[in-house]
Amino acid sequence: MNRSNRTFVCIKVCCGLLLPLVAVTQPEAQNETSRFRVNVVLVQLNVAVTDGKGNYISGLRPEDFAITEDNISEKIATFEEGNESPRKFTEDAPSAAEDAVPVPVIPPGTAHVALEHSLAGVTIPGLSGSNVFILFDTSNYMYRSFVYAQDAITDFVRSMPDVNKIAFYSYSRDLSRAAVLTADRFRVVSGVRSTVAGDDAALYNSLLLTVKDAAPLRGRKAIVVFSNGPDNASSVPPEDVAELAQSTGTIIYIVSTRQAESEPMSSAAFERMSKATGGKAYFARNWREEKEAFSSIKDDLAHLYTLSYYPHPNPNRGWRSIKVQLVGKNLEKYRLRTRDGYSLLQQAEATTEPEVASDPEPR
Questions:
Q1: Is position 357 within any domain?
Q2: What pairing do the DSSP bridges indicate for beta strands 250-257 and 65-69?
Q3: What is the pLDDT of residues 54-95, one digit of tens each?
């Protein structure tokens, strides 16, 4: 499929972590995408480092990592391990006016976009932890295991460290924002317990909207999907969701059941989406394995290294390839997991998104 004809191109969210230094105007209608330009683009990478047995490696330093973008060596601007506050390593962002890119305005009722950014000082307070969006399948696939899935998600929410903020969304044919991003665990759990099973499953539509909600956030951001079956009602393909998540630095984790795994197209799509963003896909046979999957995701988020950099001037206006390596002594034996690039799109003309149903306001 020609990339210029794909739904993602109509959405045009660009780059890893975009920190706008200009004002935002709200769109007149939710199904239209308004854009503004930014002159500073900070690309954020979330990197998991493990040994041959899958154990996480901690205690690495910024000098242990080497980053290249389109084979151009990049300098680390900020560095964070786990839930620590990010540390700053460059004084000023390079002038990147030639790389100004359009960024969408997020619909009303979603997370607030930060309009100013400061890197003064050794650490950057207020950015520790992760912004985690939970997306729960409440379609008619869920009738048999609904309560068990609710229990697994509730345990996951309660076990997350206090530094993390959590949002809880559910989906069937439409997306419902039951609890917007908050540190209040009671509010999130109440959202989980209030869900009921419903209509067909429009996973990719709902996941696309969730990625858009996460896109403007500063710091680490992740989406944890619980799906009990294949998508049978979406208007967008999983490739568009994966590309948008890659280009906004959003990690996607998917916890699914054997019912979804028995559908080769669905299981392959889940694997591709999660891998492309630096996340993981899990296929649980029972409620015990569902809880183990959520526990694994919690551990993964707690051990990620978050690196950012200001890209050097680059004439490439499309897909930019990123490579991260360990260069310290005896570190070559460890394994890295992260996204492998992002798209930089220049088009600034107004476009209309595909018709994707969603609650207009959070409940």
A1: no
A2: unpaired
A3: 999 999 999 999 999 999 999 999 999 987 766 776 555 554
